[in-house]
Amino acid sequence: MMNTTQNKQAEQTTIARLTYAAIAAVVLSGVLAVAFGFLFIQTDLWQWLSGAIIAASISLAGLNAWRITRSGRVALAGNWLVGGITIPAILFNLFVEDAVLVFVFLVVFSPLAVWRILYQSKKWKQSLLIGGVTGLCIVLVDLLTPFSRISTEPSFYLTLMAWVVAVFLGLISLYFASRIFLRQSIRIKLIISFLLVSVFSGGSIALVNSYTAGIVLADEAGAKLKSIANARALAVGGLLVQQVDLLQALGLNQILQYRIDNANTEYSGGPAEIQAEIEALDRQWLAESDADPLVYSRLNNPLASELLKFQETFPAYVEILATDRYGALIAATNRTSDYYQADEAWWQETFNNGQGSIYIGSPSLSESSQRLVLAMAIPVYAAHSRDVIGVLHTTYDLTALAGLLPKTGFGQTGRFDIYIGGGWQLAWKDGEFAFTPADIDPSTLVRLNSENYVDAPYHPGTPSFISQSPVEAITGEEFIGDLNWTLIAYLDRAEALAPVRTQQLNNLLLALLIIGLTFVAAVGMGRLLTGPIIRLTGVAGQVSAGDLTVQAQVESNDEVGSLAVAFNTMTGRIRENIGDLEKYARQIETVVDVSHRLTAILDLSDLLHQVVNLIKETFGYYHVHIYLLEDETLLMAEGYGQAGAEMKRQEHNIPLTAPRSLVARAAREGQIITVENVRDDPDWLPNPLLPETHSEMAVPVILGGKTVGVLDVQSEKVGGLSATDEDALRPLADQVASAVRNARAFAQAQDALNEAQELQRLYTSEAWEQFSVVHPTTDYEVRQPTLLPLQEISTPEAAAALQRKQTVDLRMDGNGSAGAADRASSPEDAAPEEAQDPDGNIENALATPLRLGDQIIGVLGIRDDNPERRWTKDEITLIEAVSEQMSLAIENARLFDNTRQRAAREKTVADMTQQVWSSDRLEEVMQTAVEQLGSKLNASKVIVQLGTKDELLSK
User: Fold this and answer.
1) Of 446, 425, 452, whose CA–CA distance to 436 is shortest?
2) For residues 806 and 800, what is the distance between their CA atoms, to the nearest angstrom?
3) Which CATH class for the 601-749 domain?
4) Boundaries of every domain in the chain
5) Alpha helices, DSSP H only, in 71-146?
6) What backbone torsions phi and psi does residue 117 show, to the nearest 5 degrees?
7) Could you report the per-residue pLDDT of 766-818, keeping only the tens digit for each?
8) Quick check: 596 pLDDT over 90?
9) Pick the residue with more confidence: 144 or 788?
10) How many CB atoms lie within 10 A of CB 685?
11) If we measure between CA atoms, which residue out of 70, 78, 99, 73 comes closest to residue 21?
12) CA-closest candidate to residue 62, choices 93, 40, 32
């Protein structure tokens, strides 16, 4: 029952996942179909329409898979979904290039994803086989497609979308493949690994070869195209130069020069009169017929005859005319529209304010002949000077130029265009050589300025190799370069990259052969390598479990054997590293422990003794001692054992400037000095008390950047001290420095405290002695009426407390004689022994000194006549606390009395001073002083004498 429920749940899960996959395929392909349809509307390219149809077919396959899934036939639905994606992907690759990775990953991903949903990776071999074969078909289609395809490269967004989709599908395919890979046995993993290595290596080699060969061959094709463009551009420039040369030869005609010169001399008056005359003739020219004398004279004169002869010799010159220096028409082969030519741009540019320049205009369509023509003009110079006397103008038929740019071009698809500028070109259109808007994209022209060729669409939908060359004259005439004409040569990419395609196909076949051979070898080698690897894996498992003593068996001398050797070496190093780490951890732990113990020691001598003992016993050194720096001498402050005690007794020391001393050197340099073999070191200073020393390390003890001492450790082994010891002793030396500072500071503070306490004791004693003189009564009592006065009672407990300087507990007889007394200054003290008199009168007395610091100023005592009474710990603590407070209160009262007396004296002095200062005569001052002193001091006689020292001494 449970199995049936689980099967139903699994089936429902499969149906749900397959439904989601079908919906995703429908949605994505639908979006793709709409996008391709939009591109078709924009570009009118049939390839985009084909792509839209193929994408729509994927949507239909997804809808059908969804329908079949709802009926429960999930296997059939999955096959429909896989076929509906892979087959259109192959077809779509027929119309679009530069997206082969998208299609390859798509056909690899689809079977993996769908069949994993259906079979939980059980048919991974079939899915990989179908995906691999379909991907291979896509690559072959990409290489062998004979007709032109649209490219995504010109569109940044299409290229970006293609790469994003390719990376996304590739990562998902890699995810599914890795999940399948992890579930396989080691033999399968080895076979797959070998196969992947062969695929990646063979594929990488093929890709690199194809890429490099493609670049080289493409560069060669581009360079060839560039050279063709250069040659044809020079031919165009040469043609234009040839026509200009013919015009210049005509300009040297003597009849032409003579007629123009005569026309210039026939004018009279100033420039305004000449201009008015020419404008009048221009109006006449426009109004009259060809029979008009003016018109007839310009079309039928010796110069016109010369121009006609030139035209007959060179029929490409459709029209020729000559003007004088004022722009008036002199002669022409055909009637012109105007008589006055100086207002024309070509005339002004050619005359150039009398400087003269060659003019070549833009192509145009002749209204009379309906042929493309080119306006050209040259200045006419005087016979024996460079003075411009007129202008010679012609309209040149561009048929000859069209012959330089044949319809068939070069190769099968090569063509030439001339980019004139301003978005216009000379090119063959519909079988005619025409002046039309340029086909080339302006951005492509910008790229061509810095590159020999570019790979971009020239005519819409035709990926091409494009190159350009500026139209120039081989002889370097500037007027040709000033035209800024550019010859564009283009060749269909398919024809340009035909050698590349052949090379790529050869590389693909070679890669497939290598992959096949590698697969066969992988199957055979997988079994051979599986056994040692499995056993090595078992050893690795034992090591991972914590058994570092296990060793892998070296079964061969190949890589697996080397791996076993390396594994054994690794485990050995791990053991060594763990041992080193444990040792270092113990040293660090020891340093921390020693540091904690040192911080608790405040006596300098005890501190240094503990330091040398702890370091020696903890680290196992041969000997340890410490030097402290006093002025310019290093004094041996403490050493270990008998040798250390003997050196301390001898007051062993080393001058700071000693040249042969490692200790002095460490103190001077502030650096750790380590000598692995002191017997070979010239700076080593031997000590007869330490004959077994073979290595030594001197660690400076530094505090606040200054050396205060040196910690010297020695070993009986050569090389017995290493960097590990340095790492351990360096922080320990710092702790020693801090501990020495603390000990010295504590000693200084203790001395200061003792001195202050002694001064306080002396002050208190002196104050109470003075107080006793002034106040002779110092006994105060509170008693019951039935008791005798204090003076009549023996108080041995008070005497005992004063003598012992501590709290005492006495048991006394009725006469006040004390029995045995025990100290009761702490709660742990034992009860006193009893001393009975014959009458059995027993009193319990408790007395404690009144203390001010170390000074005793009195005694506080209490008695109880109950013989059973025992003073409890709390009562003893209470009486001691009361005595402390009484001592403070008595001292405060004494201090207050002193303060009051001092205030009274100050007031008396102030009053007397005020009385004395109130008099302004000497006699009154003296009289007032005598009276005040006598009154305040109750003196019977007061004398005040004035005079010098000698006078007073003589009296």
Assistant:
1) 425
2) 8
3) alpha beta
4) 2-183, 252-400, 401-496, 601-749, 793-901, 922-954
5) 74-92, 100-119, 124-144
6) -65, -40
7) 666 666 666 655 555 655 565 555 555 667 877 787 778 788 887 766 554 55
8) no
9) 144
10) 15
11) 78
12) 32
Phi then psi for 845, rounded to 5 degrees? -115, 145
Task: Measure the CA–CA gap between 765 and 894, rounded to whole angstroms.
Answer: 13
pLDDT above 60: residue 215: yes
Domain 252-400 maps to which CATH number in 3.30.450.20, 3.40.50.2000, 3.40.50.300, 3.40.630.30? Answer: 3.30.450.20
Q: Which residue has the higher pLDDT, 154 or 291?
A: 291
Rounded CA-CA distance 817/838 in Å is: 13
Tracing tokens 């003290």 back to the chain, one arrives at: 829
Torsion of CA 778, 780, 786, 789, to 10 degrees: 0
- The structure tokens listed for 299 are 């079309």
In angstroms, what CA-CA distances link 873 with 327, 489, 664, 831, 876?
Answer: 142, 119, 61, 10, 5
Tokens of 380: 């006419």
In whole angstroms, give the CA distance from residue 663 to residue 654.
8
Q: Whole-angstrom Cα distance, residue 163 to residue 169?
A: 10
Domains 252-400 and 601-749 share a fold: yes
Region 193-205: mean pLDDT is: 69
| Residue 51 CB burial class (10 angstroms; 0-12, 13-18, ≥19) | buried
Higher pLDDT, 133 or 880: 880
Torsion angle in degrees (nearest 10) through CA of 192, 194, 199, 205: 170
Tokens of 727: 């790492």
Tell me the longest C-alpha to C-alpha distance in the chain: 188
Q: In the CATH scheme, what architecture does the domain 793-901 have? A: 2-Layer Sandwich (3.30)
> What does the block give as tokens for 351?
């005359």
CA distance 310 to 222: 43
Beta strand 633-639 with 653-655 is antiparallel
What the block records as the tokens of 227 is: 């050279």
Return d(Cα 105, Cα 134) in angstroms, integer: 10
**From residue 275, how far is each of 269, 270, 329, 332, 389 by CA, in Å?**
10, 9, 13, 21, 16
The answer to whether residue 245 scores a pLDDT higher than 80 is yes
Q: Say if CB 666 and CB 673 are below 8 A apart.
A: yes
CB 848 within 8 A of CB 879: yes
- Map residue 365 onto helix, strand or coil: strand
Mean pLDDT value of segment 376-405:
88
**Which 3 state secondary structure label does DSSP give 846?**
strand
